[in-house]
Write a structure and sequence with these properties.
The chain is of the alpha+beta class. Helices cover about 35% and strands about 30% of the residues.
């Protein structure tokens, strides 16, 4: 009677896929906590609206950092809330869960994901590596004897991987992704304009006028912040060129990781990648001009997945819907093994 659930447990957002229903929940990975009692007062969208606006008695925070669990108890509370919304709360409703993890995490980090998921109410836990899930969800035929390259830019990590025959041939995982891009925008606005803005404003700038290629201009945007010279509220206009300059260093590291991975790819697989191109997934794939920049640096066509934000969750969903074929991809470890 339990449900099969797939979770893209991201640093910025958590997406839940239920077998037979598809994606049923998209929520920010944010928890609001009462300082004294440590009681969780809000999760997801409700908690994100509190970021930067809470009184001293409440903290709004992200329990995930760089793709791994930073706050065990609060991640557990967040998942428990999501399970109740998607699987119910009866004694028979403990779901069987597949969770996505970054490639190359340590055994301790891997175990923490398992423990948190079981503590939140799962009947059993399976782990799937993020590049494989993203590749499947982007429509790549990872089981074929052909090389494919997937670049998944999430909130906490960027995963660059070459896949073939259902596995990862080589991969590079960076702790540089959406959160670091937001932070770089905050620092740039502070340094250039003497205006302090919050991470939500920085994220909005990135999404609406962010560009990483000179040929892509997305205009300008008026924002509000606090003037650091006199402490008063201020309004400034920020351009696409500003955001591109702000993100330059972080984007360079991401593109360099792609180029280095290509350099280390076996020749036969390199040929396949040249023919098939590079697939971009995750929220970072939506950065203006990223596909053009990668094409310019590598000489290989880059394509954005049809639904880049959902690629990982959709990939987990494909595994859930055909569990008989998942043995080579996932590793199960449930309550019975404890």
């Amino acid at each position: 009677m339990s449900k099969n659930i797939g979770i893209d447990l991201g640093t910025a957002n958590t997406i839940v896929y239920v077998r037979g229903k598809g994606i049923v929940l998209r929520e920010p990975s944010v928890v609001a906590v009462e300082q004294r009692s440590k009681k969780v007062v809000a999760v997801g969208n409700a908690a994100k609206q509190m970021l930067g606006k809470t009184p001293g008695s409440i903290i709004a925070m992200r329990p995930m950092k760089d793709g791994v669990i930073a706050e065990f108890d609060f991640t557990t509370a967040m998942l428990r809330d999501f399970f109740k919304r998607t699987a119910g709360s009866t004694v028979f409703s403990h779901p069987r869960v597949i969770v996505c993890i970054p490639y190359g995490v340590t055994e301790v980090e891997r175990r923490a994901v398992e423990d948190v998921t079981l503590e939140a109410g799962a009947q059993s836990v399976a782990l799937i590596e993020e590049p494989i899930a993203a590749a499947i969800g982007s429509g790549l035929r990872v089981e074929d004897a052909k090389g494919s390259m997937i670049v998944d830019i999430g909130g906490g990590t960027t995963e660059v991987a070459v896949t073939s025959l259902g596995g990862i041939v080589l991969s590079t995982s960076l702790r540089i992704a959406g959160d670091e891009l937001d932070e770089s925008i905050v620092n740039y606005i502070k340094k250039r304009y003497n205006i302090l803005i919050g991470e939500i404003t920085a994220e909005m700038l990135k999404k609406k006028i962010g560009s990483v290629h000179p040929g892509v201009d997305r205009g300008s945007m008026e924002i509000r912040g606090r003037n650091l010279l006199n402490g008063l509220p201020a309004i400034i206009t920020v351009t696409t060129a500003d955001i591109r300059e702000a993100m330059h260093e972080q984007v360079f590291h991401i593109v360099e990781a792609i180029r280095t991975t290509l350099e280390n790819t076996p020749p036969e697989l390199s040929s396949d990648i040249y023919d098939n191109g590079i697939m971009l997934a995750g929220g970072g794939a939506l950065l203006g001009g990223l596909d053009a920049l990668i094409n310019h640096v590598t000489g290989i066509k880059a394509t954005i997945a049809k639904a880049p934000l959902d690629a990982v969750a959709v990939g987990i969903g494909h595994v859930i819907e055909s569990m008989g074929d998942a043995n080579d991809i996932v590793q199960f470890r449930g309550r019975s093994s404890r």
